[in-house]
Amino acid sequence: MSIHMHREIDQLKVSLLELCGTVEEQLADAVRAVLDRDPNLADRVERRDEEIDRREIEIEESALKLLALYQPVALDLRFVIAFIKINNDLERIGDLAVNIARKARNLSQFEPLRLPVDIDAMWKNVKAMVRDSVDSLVQTNAELAEEVCRRDEIVDRQKRDCRVTIEKLLATQPEAVQPLLQYLAVSRNLERAADHATNIAEDVIYLVRGRIPRHQAAGNL
């Protein structure tokens, strides 16, 4: 029975990696829609969200079935619980991609505006965090997960810089209020995606080391 259970756990890993790849693609297309002001690409991102929702449900059902059928304990139990939580975080990142795509559609209605912030650089950091967080799970690599957590501050700083820049522009370019607010919302959604990647990494640290990093940090205050 243990062999069968571990085969199903391996299949869950594969399913999560596939979902992660789809979510990465969604985010990439959403950001590209913003940079290119492409409403058609934005529409495609929104349509594909149903696929992510469907796959998230399938993975959760498989994990719950595994729990009921094999009643895993110790590390195996923590693995399956981590899968369920990480699966949810990936679905939420997919939702954020849709939010970004909607901002891209809104931006396409305005005259082109010189991009006030480096959205592409911020996206590249978020993409690396998402990929490395899931890789840390597959490899049960707590060191990689900790590196993801540390990089969250970089994205937080990029979002703060974006906010400061846009607030200054709002004061001097009142005619560009709407597109500037769309860019601000994009940066906020990217920062939230990084937060979900951090959640995944923290779950991996708990899985491997049996401690919850955010609780430990709170205790050190």
Considering DSSP H and I runs of 4 or more, what fraction of the residues is helical?
over 70%
- How would you sum up the major sheet? none
Number of strands: 0
Number of domains: 1
> Looking at the structure, what is the overall shape?
elongated
User: What is the first-to-last residue Cα distance?
Assistant: 45 Å
Quote the average pLDDT: 90
Poorly predicted sequence stretches spanning 5 or more consecutive residues = none
Give the helices and strands as they follow along the chain.
HHHHHHH
Kindly identify the CATH topology.
Methane Monooxygenase Hydroxylase, Chain G, domain 1
CATH architecture: Up-down Bundle
- Helices, by number, come to 7
Taken as a percent bin, the fraction of beta residues is under 5%
Can you identify the CATH class?
Mainly Alpha
Rg is 19 Å
| Class by alpha and beta content | mainly alpha
CATH superfamily: Phosphate transport system protein phou homolog 2, domain 2
